[in-house]
Design goal:
By secondary structure, the protein is α/β, with parallel strands linked by helices. The protein folds into 2 domains: 232 residues, P-loop containing nucleotide triphosphate hydrolases (Rossmann fold); 31 residues, no CATH class. It has 10 helices and 12 strands. A 6-stranded mixed sheet has the order 6-7-8-3-9-10, sandwiched between helices. β9 and β10 form a beta hairpin. It binds adenosine-5'-triphosphate. Adenosine-5'-triphosphate (ATP) binds next to α1. Adenosine-5'-triphosphate binds next to α1.
Amino acid sequence: MKPTAMLQARKLCLHNRFEDINLSLNRGECWHVLGQNGAGKSSLFDVLSGLTEANVGDVIYDGRALSDISISERATTRAYLQQTYSLAFSLSVSELLSFYLDQSTLFQQHTTPSSIPDILVPTELDEALHVNALLDRPLNELSGGEQQRVHIARVLLQVWPAIQQGEAILLMDEPLQNLDIAFQESVLILFKTLVVMGNLLVMSVHDVNLSLRFADKVLLLKQGKCQASGENKAMLTASGVTELYEYPFELLQLNNNIEKTFIRRPN
Ligand SMILES: Nc1ncnc2c1ncn2[C@@H]1O[C@H](COP(=O)(O)OP(=O)(O)OP(=O)(O)O)[C@@H](O)[C@H]1O
């Protein structure tokens, strides 16, 4: 039987960026990583994805050391959305996505008319990301939010067969950046759907109220150290997030305590 933990970090250190990070992330969980600018979130994502090697410690996927998993095998089960992505040359969205798709399973063929791109993003992705309408546009002519939706589609398509099996590890560094409020919500709902299928999703975010609503568990990263990690409700307290951001938060209870929201504590 497979071990429950899909992704583990043991005593991870990256010099001058973070230290002694220990994590055990299970399949079917949605983790949010929160912390100030420069806290080490992107550096941690780089190491968890295998892009950067830790100075100390191990990253373990499904009981296997990441260093023992080939790059090609990683690419089929682990998606990593980096905070920035730049292309040195011009590509259409469909050309970009075509590099990442599994031809046999991912895109349906479009036949006519010939001016329409010959690929389509699967409906469940397109409903959240509205990428099919952008397929014939040059990537570098899209708005920031449109590009971000394409990049979310790109990394999910890379591991789409694993996602269907509930076997994917989805690492998303600030996936909501540049998205308007409606797209932020539709992406978070899409992520929830993927998590319910058994996939593990780990994302960084700067909005504690979105974490209150959408995270199962959180990692609070403070100056490269784990301030706290665990269940959303236990971790996201006014004192916890005030300490994390050095900003005065108060937690309001709304609708007969059904909903909660953080506000700035009045003076
Ligand atoms: N390539 C690098 N080489 C050396 N130091 C780096 C490098 N990238 C980032 N840093 C430093 O490491 C620290 C952590 O940066 P990181 O990008 O991981 O923070 P972050 O939590 O993702 O911040 P943000 O919320 O601003 O995206 C910062 O002090 C940053 O200046």
